[in-house]
Write a structure and sequence with these properties.
alpha/beta; 8-stranded mixed beta sheet
Length: 360
């Protein structure tokens, strides 16, 4: 998981399909970065020295445990063209074409701004001309929503929601998981698609925003309407599943899915902020799994003063259905050949067996 250190503001404008608006922006994640001093001062009021020390130590434990061992470099404020804007009835194909052109222009802009690393990553994202982006914004840390497969004819669609430190600079590792899942699904069910949803400003590893739900609340407000639109784009009667990794599970737990989503899987989760699966604003079946090699299992499952995420989703008391994740580490759930990949594919396809425990 990772955290960002700033907030960008803008406005969202809907325009004709494939048009550009030079001054059109989008409200970035509204999460507020909390300093350690803020977190500790919250616990100071109305408590004695012992209470302050205990809460301070718990906050430090959570902070130390949640930070990913390998942190991505902070994304610079990279210049890029404003994203393409679309009418509500724009087809996926028209979106793919406009966003492909925008991505290429963003790569040229980054190169001209002496940002060769970002330029190279953007070119890799668009290499071959076959990439299918429903959304692309090359500014700053960036946003991207990419489709793998033919979403318009798919009757099984998985939406991946990433955790912290997922940006355009680290996008390749997120994309690799989406490709792996799509290949696994396609082997068993050709009419399947995967959507890699980097539709929010993920928190960064060196900021305590990763310990609060502020970024998740902002992301959920973007994800819910996207799921409704995606269901309309997909094949008739399509079954949508939400696969939520790490801090992404906090996002999913705050997303009102209505009837758009049949299954929600939480993996590598630090908690959701909810005490049980029944508290989540969804009618979907809720699943939870954790690999035995995942360090996030050492995160203290506490919540106080808006810090931490409480009950462990893999705890039977949470009430989620358990799925087998094997021995994977925190970043390995979607790697080819893993038990976790098989389990997540089965959830998407609706082929889970009776051996999966249901704590609901």
């Amino acid at each position: 998981m990772a955290t960002g250190t700033g907030t960008q503001a803008g406005t969202r404008t809907q325009a004709g399909a494939g048009t550009r608006a030079g001054t059109t922006g989008r409200t970035r994640g509204s999460g507020t970065t909390l300093s350690t001093g803020t977190a500790l001062s919250t616990s100071r009021a109305g408590s004695g020295g012992g209470g302050r020390l205990r809460r301070g130590l718990l906050a430090a434990l959570v902070a130390a445990a949640v930070v990913v061992p390998v942190s991505a470099a902070a994304s610079p404020n990279v210049p890029a063209p404003a994203p393409a804007t679309f009418s509500e009835d724009a087809t996926p194909r028209s979106r793919y074409a406009a966003n492909s052109a925008n991505l290429a222009e963003a790569a040229r802009t980054a190169e001209d701004a002496d940002r060769p690393g970002r330029a190279a990553r953007l070119r890799a994202m668009g290499s071959g001309g076959a990439a299918q982006f429903l959304t692309f914004d090359g500014r700053g840390r960036g946003r991207a929503v990419e489709v793998f497969g033919e979403v318009e004819s798919a009757d099984r669609v998985a939406v991946l929601v990433p955790g912290s430190d997922t940006t355009l600079d680290t996008y390749e590792r997120f994309r690799a998981g989406a490709v792996s899942l799509q290949q696994r699904l396609q082997a068993e069910h050709p009419r399947s698609a995967v959507v890699a949803w980097l539709g929010y400003d993920t928190p960064g590893t060196v900021s305590t925003t990763v310990l609060s739900a502020d970024r998740a609340d902002a992301a959920a407000a973007e994800l819910a309407p996207f799921l409704d639109r995606l269901r309309e784009m997909s094949g008739p009667g399509a079954r949508l599943s939400l696969l939520c990794h790490s801090y992404g599970s906090v996002v999913c737990a705050r997303t009102a899915t209505g009837s758009a989503v049949s299954d929600m899987a939480l993996f590598g989760s630090p908690g959701t902020g909810a005490g049980s699966a029944r508290e989540l604003p969804t009618g979907a079946r809720v699943w939870a799994g954790r690999g035995s090699g995942d360090w996030i299992g050492n995160v203290p499952h506490v919540r106080f003063g808006g810090i931490g995420f409480g009950t462990d989703p893999v705890d039977p008391a949470f009430g989620a259905r358990a799925f087998t994740a094997g021995a994977v580490g925190h970043s390995d759930y979607l790697k080819p050949g893993t038990e976790s990949l098989d389990s997540l594919a089965a959830i998407v396809l609706g082929t889970t067996t009776a051996s999966e425990a249901d704590h609901g």
